[in-house]
Amino acid sequence: MTSPTPDGKTSIEIARTAAACLSEVLRTLCIPHEILGHTTLTEQAEGMLKAGTIRADDLNDFSRLVPFRGYVFKTFEENAVPTSLFKRRP
Q1: Is 67 within a domain?
Q2: Range(s) of the domain holding residue 19
Q3: What is the C-alpha to C-alpha distance for residues 28 and 22, in angstroms, rounded to an integer?
Q4: Fewer C-beta neighbours within 10 Å, C or N terminus of the chain?
Q5: Total domain count for the chain?
């Protein structure tokens, strides 16, 4: 979970807004581009411990232990309006 900024927005919300703004500029200039995102779903660590996928000692060695999940919000071929791109994923 990300901490809110003084104006109440999280860093994820700020990053989404910045990506949408940059995408709109690139789209207007007809510059092909892609918008990618990722998460590491850190809430899964407890389940992985119980399942034996990771050991408790591993928690001290790594800042993130869980699977990386990548998302493509916009491919190079798409000409989507940037504000609609992030409605696909929470």
Answers
A1: yes
A2: 11-88
A3: 10
A4: C
A5: 1
**SS3 assignment for the chain:** CCCECCCCCEHHHHHHHHHHHHHHHHHHCCCCCCEEEEECCHHHHHHHHHHCCCCCCHHHHCCCCCCCEEEEEECCCCCCCHHHHHHHCC
Angle at 37 between CA 33 and CA 39, to 5 degrees: 170
Residue 55 lies in a domain: yes
| 2 part of a folded domain | no
> What is the pTM for the complete model shown?
0.60
pLDDT at 31: 92
Q: Give domain status of residue 1, yes or no.
A: no
